[in-house]
Amino acid sequence: MSKKVVVIGLGHLGAHVSQMLALRGIADEIVGIDYNKRKEWGEIQDLSDMLPYLGTQTKIRSGNYEDLADADIAVLTACGKICDEDRLQELSGSIAVIDQILPEVQKNHFHGTMIVLTNPCDLIAYYVNQKINADVIGTGTALDSARLRSRVAAALNLAPSDIQGYCIGEHGDSQTILWSQTRAGGVLADNLLTPEQMRQIEQDTISAGCEIALHKGSTEFGIGMAACEIIQAILGDEHRILPCSVDPKGAYGQSGLFTSVPCIISREGAVPLKELDLTSDEMAKFTASCDMLKDMIQKMS
Q1: d(Cα 140, Cα 232) in Å, to the nearest integer?
Q2: Are residues 123 and 164 in the same domain?
Q3: Does 171 participate in catalysis according to the annotation?
Q4: What's the per-residue H, E or C state across 26-52?
Q5: What would the pLDDT profile of 268-300 be if each residue is shown by its tens digit?
Q6: How far apart are CA 171 and CA 157, in angstroms?
Q7: 122 lies in which domain range?
Q8: Are 166 and 112 within one domain?
Q9: Active-site choice (12, 111, 171, 215)
């Protein structure tokens, strides 16, 4: 069965997601949509020029919202003005953009899975979930968890792929790093790192997005790859465990919001994994993060 992905928004991030999907052969058909049709044409033509060198027969083309009718995945990257200092400040601008897109999603009867990358990711994913009749998953802390693993690996001079660990909660400053679950080859990281190293890694992980945006204007490679991992897990029915933003539906005592927890990701969507054994400090930080998101949801309402 053909695997079709529609990417809504072809800025740096949307273009990189499209490229990664093609390079890795995750999708058979990639359709790009952007309000700026001149840019849309240029990005699609540029992406298409790499196809002769790929080992897969991926089709990349411009499209419109009617393409959502039979799409497996829709990737939402469209946003308002990017704020370097605080993702939460992007909320009103992002909602203004999203409100122009969601009626088209509904009108064209999209029934696949919507992957939300638009920041503030947790709040936008929650907002979209309230507005459309389709599964919604926010990339959430899939990116932050990768940043944590990369920084632990660098401190220990190990391969990032050999580090296991999660950040949960908001994709933002209130996220919670689960040191109790962070391991290198099965060994707890706090047995290998000094307290000073752990504090620095935590600070660098949380501030990474803002620091990158301050230096280059946006983030694109890490989040693009995180999105592709989620998409691949869905289309391949892989039952992979990845942290992403969903309604926990009672896990960790939380519901009625979108926040990141480790999930089993497959064709069925993202289902929260059985609760991890968190420390009291980790649970308190996660609860505080969720409370902040709930407060923002109340203000949105």
Answers
A1: 16
A2: no
A3: yes
A4: CCCEEEEECCCHHHHHHHHHHHHCCHH
A5: 999 999 999 999 999 999 999 999 999 999 988
A6: 27
A7: 4-138
A8: no
A9: 171
